[in-house]
Specification:
This protein is of the alpha/beta class and 292 residues long. It is built from twelve helices and 13 strands.
Length: 292
Amino acid sequence: MKIALMADSSSGITQKEAEELGVFIAPVPVYIDNELFYEDLTITQEKYYEKLKSDANVSTSQPNPEAVSEMWEKLLQDYEAIIYVPISSGLSQTGHILAKVAENNEKFNGKVFVVDNHRVSITQRQSVIDALNMAKEGKTAKEIYEWLMETSMKSSIYIMVDTLKYLKKSGRLTAAAAAVGTLLKIKPVLQIQGEKLDQYAKVRKVSDAKTTIIKAIKNDLETRFKDLVDEGRMVVAVAHTDNPEEAEKFKAEMIAAFPNVEFVCIRPLSLSVASHIGPKALAAGCAIKYKK
């Protein structure tokens, strides 16, 4: 069965990497002073952060369902089925909308499988890699869809936010809380446990944030994911917003902290996440991986 694997750019998979992997990426729309751009196609991460730091009116949305549907139609000319892995439904309703499109359109019904496996960024990317490996092994689209759904909650992400400015601008933090936090030089550590972005801890230094994140992931791997670790079925990864040098240092710390767990990648967080948390953020996560 010839299966196309597709995700949105919230996965952190660039167009170049997608081409190398043989998968397809729907770009996230980006608005800068009301002008429309598309992540990794008509705007780079560097240009985006330049505009973000200059206090331009910057926002993102999710891929337009009509544009995604057009991609599906083109892919179905060459493929028998499509697995589409969008950003978590806890962060966007796009997946639910596209699932309805696939279900209610006879061109897509039974051919396009929209997976709500509650992922974003490095864990969403892992879902795509797993689906790709399963397809290469000869699994059907339905089998891949079912496995991704069954394992949807077997991941964690923890994110250090360097400044509260962008959480305030996005409406996820009150102005008063942001003012107090800035005065006290607080760097919140947020978490994504399959759904929404929630507060996990408060620290004041980057080093403390990294220690907090490593301890949190260690706890996950030693408790709810212990059996998967023992079976060699967990991976860890690092992500960042405009912070590549610190991310490389964090990678070394993660590898040292988890020598028996596979480290898979460092990736920039997508612009859809960066717009809420701003530059210089650091993140790490763990996720199940498919193993034959």
